[in-house]
């Protein structure tokens, strides 16, 4: 596992990235693909909200920038199908940013299957349930890590009333996709599939703040 993780940190070749992600997440499921085919033609109560958010999702990425284009349509279908597949989550802002990188690397049926694995196996789902227990837990864990690893920066941010949820919530909910370049996001996904979402979120967040500590203080 350590050798695999080390190789993945070096970056997966773009041509095989989608296949590797599917293999790492063990997403292959004829049943899920069949379910997707059934759900994608049904009506979702979240359709209007999903459509509203499409233009806000990766507007600088060629695949998603055209209103009503093939990329936006695929994104809409995957999000709509998932909103029906998992009624307790339905649709929340942030989910589109998790699906986008998948669609850049694989067909939408496979993207749906991998997305289900991200939510369930990689424990992203509780970040989006009603009380967001998963998000609250990870924010608490990150606050503790920040106190331990970067105590001076942690104290400085608290002094200026910059609380962890103010900047970290978007990072965690979108696996950093909301605010960072796609090249970096894809590398983060590589590590997520090898080492898990929670571990990767913590390590990347601490690394970014450590690198920027002198500029922030």
From TrEMBL:
<feature type="domain" description="Rab-GAP TBC">
    <location>
        <begin position="11"/>
        <end position="196"/>
    </location>
</feature>
<dbReference type="InterPro" id="IPR000195">
    <property type="entry name" value="Rab-GAP-TBC_dom"/>
</dbReference>
<dbReference type="GO" id="GO:0005096">
    <property type="term" value="F:GTPase activator activity"/>
</dbReference>
<dbReference type="InterPro" id="IPR050302">
    <property type="entry name" value="Rab_GAP_TBC_domain"/>
</dbReference>
<dbReference type="Pfam" id="PF00566">
    <property type="entry name" value="RabGAP-TBC"/>
</dbReference>
<protein>
    <recommendedName>
        <fullName>Rab-GAP TBC domain-containing protein</fullName>
    </recommendedName>
</protein>
<dbReference type="InterPro" id="IPR035969">
    <property type="entry name" value="Rab-GAP_TBC_sf"/>
</dbReference>
<keyword id="KW-0343">GTPase activation</keyword>
<dbReference type="GO" id="GO:0031267">
    <property type="term" value="F:small GTPase binding"/>
</dbReference>
């Amino acid at each position: 596992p350590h050798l695999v993780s080390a190789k993945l940190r070096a970056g997966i070749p773009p041509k095989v990235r989608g296949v590797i992600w599917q293999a790492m997440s063990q997403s292959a499921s004829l049943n899920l693909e069949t379910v997707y085919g059934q759900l994608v033609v049904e009506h979702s109560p979240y359709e209007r909200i999903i459509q509203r958010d499409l233009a806000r999702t990766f507007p600088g990425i060629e695949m998603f920038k055209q209103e009503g284009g093939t990329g936006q349509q695929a994104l809409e279908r995957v999000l709509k199908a998932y909103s029906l597949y998992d009624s307790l989550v339905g649709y929340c802002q942030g989910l589109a940013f998790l699906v986008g990188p998948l669609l850049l690397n694989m067909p939408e049926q496979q993207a749906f299957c991998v997305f289900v694995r991200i939510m369930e196996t990689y424990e992203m789902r509780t970040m989006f349930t009603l009380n967001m227990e998963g998000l609250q837990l990870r924010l608490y864990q990150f606050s503790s890590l920040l106190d331990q690893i970067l105590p001076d920066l942690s104290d400085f941010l608290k002094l200026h009333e910059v609380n962890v949820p103010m900047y970290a919530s978007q990072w965690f909910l979108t696996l950093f996709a909301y605010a960072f370049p796609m090249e970096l996001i894809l590398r983060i996904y590589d590590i997520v599939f090898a080492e898990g979402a929670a571990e990767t979120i913590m390590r990347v967040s601490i690394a970014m703040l450590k690198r920027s500590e002198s500029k922030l203080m």
